Amino acid sequence: MAGHSTYVPASGFERWLDSRLPIMRLMHDTMTTFPTPRNLNIWYTFGGILTFCLAVQIVTGIVLAMHYVPSADMAFNSVEGRIMREVNYGWLIRYIHSNGASMFFLAVYIHMFRGLYYGSYKAPREVIWILGVLIYLLMMATAFFGYVLPWGQMSFWGATVITSLFSALDQVIPHLGSAITSWLWGGFAVGDATLNRFFSLHYLLPFVIAGVVGLHIWALHVPGNNNPLGIDVKGPQDTLPFHPYYTVKDAFYLSLFLILFAAFVFFAPNFFGNPDNAIQANPLVTPQDIVPEWYLLPFYAMLRSIPQKLIGVLVLVGALVTLVFVPWLDTSKVRSCRFRPLMKQCFWLLVLDCVMLGYVGAQSADAALSLGGMQLPLVWLARLGTAYYYGFFWLIMPIVGLIETPKALPESIAKAVLGAKAKA
Ligand code: HEM
């Protein structure tokens, strides 16, 4: 897809630079003339939206770090006192950063489910997908470290619960897990040393993410985009130059996304937050329910659905590792769910399943649903949800791909989009 470069330097300076560092050529070939399928829909604008989100998090994060103090005594006041009340527009920068994390995850989930629906992980795009999974894991780690920094009750207890998961290794080799846990803490509990290292890592990881995003987009530019039909580009009539067609489309949807983002920042800045985090961390008082941010809830529900700690941790880690194998678990010859009637239904069930797991993850561990007088402990819903999640990837994907009869695929993208107007 990359093809021949069509870049022609426009000035003496560009000619000079091009023979030394062809960076203008690279930008021209990847962002201006790049042949892009002509049928990309709204769901294809989220890659650009994600790049924007990453930039926003880095810029606002750097400004916040200028005023933040990473010490157990001062962190809470440096955020709630100094940044929120004293620094000019500190409240705005903080709210953009904290709501930005939620918007980033909202966009990444749409981006991932889009990839699953259109079979974008299938050959020859396996590496794009795997780099995406790596970015997702790095995003979860970054968000977890970031949530600890304001040093509220949920910051402290969330950090305690998650780091303590390593102590499950005690069941494999006695003392190993506890040793790793106190090594991670830098002491015998989450404290000053923990906060300092989490701050350091929270500052570092976004730049690692930026590097992996570079690889992700590089890998994308080798085969070019997949598209909602999931069929290959057959010739120039199937594509459009990236600029102005997709630069304009991306900018339009980014603007809509920004309206939603601004609505949260200005009208409901604490919508995604937990009120317990407005209370300074207190190692002597445990909150009634320890819950992570919404974007980690489905995995939290899986962890809690299993009473045995080590197995719970393995189920949680396994659910994430599963994503790496997706390109090889799907046995279908057809990429897009548009032509896969059975898979389409299983896909939407997976979306519902993740929402249901998220709901269960947000409830108390011993909560129950009352159904016509009967009490159904939510932990059973979490088990059912976990079973479907694993079943979807390890059973449904390979089996449905073999038994399903897909609908007939269109001859070409141009034919499907333009109908009779397409050139033969
Ligand atoms: C910081 C996070 C990320 C950024 C900035 C990013 C960026 C992009 C961009 C710019 C594109 C091309 C435009 C588009 O298809 O939307 C893309 C495509 C893609 N991304 Fe991501 N991405 C991120 C995370 C992920 C994650 C977490 C996954 C999956 C686990 C993923 C999987 C894919 C796939 C499979 C494609 C190819 C889609 C296709 O051609 O149909 N990405 N990404």
Enumerate how many helices there are, as a single number: 15
Number of domains: 1
What's the mean pLDDT score?
97
Task: Say which molecules are bound, naming each kind only once.
Answer: protoporphyrin IX containing FE
CATH topology tier name: Cytochrome Bc1 Complex, Chain C
Task: Please state how the strands of the largest beta sheet are arranged side by side.
Answer: 1-2
Percent helix, as a range, is 55-70%
Cα-atom radius of gyration? 24 Å
Question: How much of the sequence is in beta strands?
Answer: under 5%
Structural class: mainly alpha
The SSE string, one letter per element, is: HHEHHHHHHHEHHHHEEHH
Low-confidence stretches: none
Fourth-tier CATH superfamily name: Cytochrome Bc1 Complex, Chain C
Number of strands: 4
Tell me, briefly, the overall form. globular
Distance between the termini: 21 Å
- CATH architecture term: Up-down Bundle
Tell me what the structure shows.
The chain is mainly alpha-helical and 424 residues long. It has a single domain (37-278, 292-421), classed as Cytochrome Bc1 Complex, Chain C. 62% of the residues lie in helices and 3% in strands. The protein has helices at 12-18, 23-32, 46-67, 75-86, 90-117, 126-148, 153-164, 176-185, 192-221, 242-267, 297-304, 309-329, 341-362, 378-403, 413-418; strands spanning 35-37, 239-241, 368-371, 374-377. A two-stranded antiparallel ribbon has the order 1-2. Strands 3-4 form a two-stranded antiparallel sheet. Helix 6 (126-148) packs antiparallel against helix 12, helix 12 (309-329) runs parallel beside helix 14 and helix 13 (341-362) runs antiparallel to helix 14 (378-403). The longest helix has 30 residues, at 192-221. Protoporphyrin IX containing FE binds at residues 44, 46-48, 50-51, 54, 108, 111-112, 115, 118, 120-121, 125, 128-129, 132-133, 135-136, 209, 213, 216-217, 220, 225-226. Protoporphyrin IX containing FE binds next to helix 3, helix 5, helix 6 and helix 9.
